[in-house]
Design goal:
This protein has a nine-stranded mixed beta sheet, with helices on both faces. A six-stranded antiparallel beta sheet has the order 5-4-3-8-7-6, covered by helices on one side. The termini are far apart. The protein has 467 residues and is an alpha/beta fold.
């Protein structure tokens, strides 16, 4: 049976389905004071519709000179593609639902200029991660939880074309000789792709979305990620140039709280940020952003985070902010904190404050420094003042579960005092984690530094809901 005849019969069944994600992220509940969120509609194409779309796509490529399209801006290129695609559909004289036709046109646009089927997901502000496990399984993280979407690629070749488009735009390559790549989208979202033979079940694509909402500490308080008295203390810590290490697991909100704390750095300071993949959003007037560079195809030209730290020290920074320490740059960071660059911030992957310090110690050993463990711990204890620990719970909520102050070194052990903590109580009938924040009654030593700088911190914050 001809495709036209089959489509005419199928269109009468009116089997057009749309899935709406109507739940609004709690973070968007804050953002909705400034904007309204419209849920993204995802079209579920039938096999016949997919066949029709592919036939129109093929005709379009035969009709349109894509080399001319490449010289246009994105909006003009999309308009040109829409115009020609609509004409090709009209020539088929198939009475398709107009909604279906428009969606087919949009899909073809996205296949040629965008990221194909996942383009719509990139415009959904509730999605924080897009995880493509082969062409037919696309997951997203929304509200801190993973969910399988209805989005699919045509096949592995279709997915590979999209991956190639992403990596070539940033001057990278991906093939059997180089089957892994890190890249960044135009909006700043981080991308990792891995293909066969390393990815056994087909190409895999992971996109960590670039946060579009600038979260302030007060917003995080409203989301119950910490309390107002904890926020008051962290504001004063940033203003007093206290060195802060932010620790937590993947997706626990480390970058978000780093951005929020940085809002209280005085505007007259020069800040240099160093990252593997730029995602920090410091809302300050004097910020210089630096990013690492991988080696080229010949294995040359790599610029590591450690190289950036060393260079940043020659650029007259008031503070250095490192997106995340992972290796030997930890030693150079501690050196900077100990030699006049107070008020610096960084993050690390760790499950608790004690583990965070142990990870820093291991990173310094990785730097090749031939130092005894006690000397390394002395460096850590004198450089880091506060450790903020974050956790993402199974219900998707994120919370600051501990704020500790490093007091010093006793023997060969770094001593710490917990100032604030979150105690988990249980889970309610809807699966939400229950707990309470409280102060421990410990008055931190850095309070003296805050007072020296003329900052006032109400002593009541250290006895709120006393543990």
């Amino acid at each position: 049976m001809e495709l036209k005849t089959r489509l005419e019969g199928f269109s009468k069944l009116d089997n057009y389905k749309i899935k709406h994600e109507s739940q609004i992220n709690s973070s968007l509940g804050v953002a909705n004071k400034r904007a309204t969120y419209i849920p993204i509609a995802i079209k579920i194409f039938t096999p016949l519709e997919i066949e029709f779309k592919q036939s129109i796509h093929t005709k379009l490529l035969d009709t349109l000179d894509l080399s001319l399209i490449s010289g246009l801006n994105n909006q003009e290129a999309r308009q040109q593609i829409r115009k020609v695609t609509q004409r090709l559909i009209d020539e088929q004289a198939i009475p398709l639902n107009n909604q279906i036709c428009q969606q087919i046109i949009t899909e073809i646009e996205n296949d040629i200029l965008g990221l194909g089927p996942i383009e719509a997901l990139l415009h959904d502000p509730t999605i924080s991660d897009i995880l493509v496990n082969g062409f037919d399984k696309v997951y997203v993280e929304r509200f801190g939880k993973l969910e399988l979407t209805l989005v699919k690629f045509n096949d592995n070749n279709h997915l590979m074309k999209i991956i190639d488009r992403i990596v070539t735009k940033v001057g990278r390559r991906i093939d059997e000789s180089s089957p892994m790549v890190d890249a960044r989208l135009a909006d700043g979202s981080r991308v990792n792709a891995i293909i066969p033979p390393l990815a056994i079940d087909g190409p895999s694509l992971s996109i960590r979305r670039f946060a579009v909402i600038d979260m302030a500490l007060d917003d995080l308080v409203e989301k119950d990620e910490l309390t107002d008295y904890m926020a008051e203390f962290l504001k004063a810590a940033a203003q007093a140039k206290v060195n802060i290490l932010i620790s937590g697991g993947t997706g626990s909100g480390k970058t978000t709280i780093l951005n929020a704390i940085s809002n209280f750095i005085p505007n007259n300071e020069r800040i240099i940020t160093l990252e593997d993949s730029a995602e920090l959003q410091l809302q300050l007037p004097h910020v210089l952003r630096l990013e690492t560079r991988p080696a080229n195809i010949e294995g040359k030209g790599e610029i590591t985070l450690r190289d950036l730290v060393r260079n940043a020290l020659r650029m007259r920074p008031d503070r250095i902010v490192i997106g995340e320490v992972r290796s030997g740059e930890a030693f150079d960071m501690l050196q900077a904190m100990n030699t006049g660059h107070e008020g610096s911030l960084t993050t690390v992957h760790a499950n608790n404050a004690r583990d965070a310090l142990a990870r820093l110690e291991n990173m310094i050993f990785m730097s090749g420094m031939d130092m005894p463990a006690k000397a390394i711990r002395k460096q850590i204890s004198s450089a880091i003042h506060l450790v903020i620990q974050l956790t993402r719970f199974e219900d998707g909520s994120r919370r600051v579960v501990s704020i500790c102050e490093i007091e010093g070194l006793e023997g060969e052990v770094i001593t710490m005092s917990e100032i604030f903590k979150y105690t988990r109580i249980g889970v309610d009938a809807e699966g939400r984690v229950l707990g309470e924040f409280c102060a421990t009654g410990v008055v931190p030593k850095c309070l003296g530094l805050m007072k020296q700088k003329g900052l006032k911190v109400d002593m009541k914050v250290f006895v709120q809901n006393l543990a």
